Amino acid sequence: MTEMATASRSSTNHLLRRDVRFLGNILGEVLVHQGGRELLDHVEKIRETSKALRAEFVPELYEEFVNTITGLEPGVRHQVIRAFAIYFQLVNIAEQNHRIRRKRDYERSAGEAVQPGSIESAILELKDKNLPLNEVQELLSGISLELVMTAHPTEAMRRAVLDVHKRIANEMMELDNPSLTYRERERLREQLRNEVLTLWQTDELRDRKPTVIDEVRNGMYFFHETLFNVLPDVYDELERCLAKYYPEQKWHVPTYLRFGTWIGGDRDGNPSVTADITWRTLNMQRNLVIHKYETLLKALMRKMSFSTTIVKVNPELLESIELEREAVELRTVERWTNDHEPYRIKITYMIQKLQNMREEKFKGTSQRYHQVSEFIADLQLIDRSLRHHYADFVADTHLKKLIRQVELFGFYLAALDVRQHSQEHENAMTEVLAKAGVTDKYNELGEEEKIELLHGLLSDSRPLLHATASLSEGAKECLEVYRTIHRAQEEFGEGCITTYLISMTRGASDLLEVMVFAKEAGLVRRTPEGKLVSSIQSAPLFETIDDLHAAPEIMKTLFDLPVYREAVAARGDMHEIMLGYSDSNKDGGMVTANWELRVALNKITETAGDYGVKLKFFHGRGGALGRGGMPLNRSILAQPPHTIGAGIKITEQGEVLTSRYSMEGIAYRSLEQATSALVKAAYLAKHPTLDQTADAHWEEILPSISETAQTKYQDLIFRDPGFMTFFKESTPLSEVGELNIGSRPSKRKNSERFEDLRAIPWVFAWTQSRYLLPAWYAAGTAFEKYVDGDPAKLETLRRMYRDYSFFATLVDNLQMALAKADLLIAQQYADMIKDDEIRTRIFTLVQEEYDLTKRILLEITGQEEILDNVPVIQESIRLRNPYVDPLSYLQVQLLSELRQHREQGEDDTELLREVLLTINGIAAGLRNTG
Asked: Is 425 a catalytic residue?
């Protein structure tokens, strides 16, 4: 079996190399066609020299390499940059296609063998462990995973470019078809050359920042292109596997996996996201999902030619049609004239009712659907009737998937979370309470006084203000958001918005403010019988290390408040809590952030358990290592199993969306692996297998390691007076802000303070300059201090790496960061720093820490080289580096020239453009932005 897998892997890797070579040759043809042989010669010389330097560093060759790059004439330089950047785009397409090919090859050659990480592997494992049917049902009813798209500006590529990528990917997949004729292959090659030429002549840079509505469209693209089809297929595969191993049950898996979104709802630091934008977002989402249902119903209608002259349909179908004829006017849908084809008649009315949902005048009438349950009822009626005359094959093939799609996407496509900074709520509350005559200086009250006042207001059913009260624009907008949520829940369904996230939560009052505003809008209310009803939940976002420390006590304070606890009970005794991986890492460094997040997870879970509250943790992970990024299945398994509770939410951001969800095959594999991990994690939560004694002992070691790491990290980042100069001058921080990749500003305030810099540009800038500092700095010092020359302690860390999943994941992420970092290149960026003392001192600190971290990680893992444990990634990085290096050297040269111009009060748009092109190229080469 192993030999077969190895042979298969070797064969398919050969196919990847073939594809990369094939696309590289086409790019070469395009370069000659567009820039002449001279352009290709420049690119080839730089590529070959860079490759040779990676194989063996020769000072004379290095000098020649630098001279070649710095000697490029500006027009040629521009084209060379684009050539390397586009090459990486093509390599990434080839690698994505190869992932799909590998899965198909495995399924074709493995026969009855089960692929690791598949849904079937997880269900087979339950069967092998003799888990009884009732426990499997209980396990599946308790799992939940929501993947939340965010508009965080980390996707450096334009949609137009991604569209070309998709066409190239599809044509490359077609080349694998063994039945193609010679002429068909030649035609495909011509099409691919056309696409690469189109890519060459397409501007990869945006000419303006995207608007929020642009970002909404970008997010909806993934639903339209892949997720609408793929998500129900994942459910179908789970049900197939359950039926195979637990055939005694007829399975319809409860909804456990769905997508949400922040795009159009996240207003933290983005004044462009208004209540009106939120309403437009929900309308756009509904229009897309209705369009999808209409398309599917029209396709279904073509297949539903069953005639009552041959079969006897269910009488309830005929009764339903009679009711529709009386209630629904066919205005925009042509009436079906064959009275013997009832399914087609029924579907015409269903399509009309969907179309009528777009028009306000039909609201409240029988001419449209109002609840998604009404639409599902009609589909189930058709399903029952088909089975009534034994057309069950048709029902299973065509109705089952559509019903699942409606269950998953409803009439709003994806639940929209609303997020706002806690300070905005305090400002609005101060103004509202002053206007209401409650207190003039709410913002000056102590935390306990605020809690007492807000809890009293939450208990009082009377409104604070008249709807027409005069308020500032900021306060009016704040209150309008809650009114919009209430209106949206009535129009699109209560599930369209149920979570209100509070950034920078510092106290219980931050959550109570949101609940008081929600009460004002009717989102929290009492029934005539006195029962509290809440259709929204305030969810804290704990971001910094101090916030994580304070979190358990904040939640305890809230759970002790009778009315707040009632509101939690109204949401099924479930509370959502978000943890920020980006800001905690920026605040405390990689080791400390990971450890403190784990501690917070455990302590908050314990606190909630004392009050009978189940928690849904929302993990705010970014795409990059310095922001908690890792494969989806690993991020699920990285959580302590007992903290899964009421489910998991995870952010899917920027370039992650494109890499995971732009192609159906990869989207399916990613979601399949996530489902498999979720099932395994749920099993572990109920059947712990770890040696709890060893686990507890290891967890006693980590606080001191974390403390050492935090001190080392903060000594540099917060306490070294030269650090901000080093950071700003040796990275493209300010230029990244000119890339037009998001509607949101890169800082929360117009401030130069480190605290006000967002985590995304922080990580993006370090990644571009090849330091990747946030993803590894201080780890070496922390591990070295713990070991302190004691072989027994080193052996403890080795055992932890072997047997303790949290520590193994941490060490492997550190390895990945070190492998992607390159301090020889980073030195070039450091040379841009004007102050010799700052440059030499801080770069020496960074270099020493890098060397120390590398040495201690190799001692812990027992490896000879970093990433020996994952040779596929190790090889990918090794092959990519020679192509990224020229872009890095060019970026340093361009940054130096551009900054020199700007210091003299001049600007050069062409230079800036070239800098931005190198940023795009390096992002594609390293497969990371922020």
From this structure: no
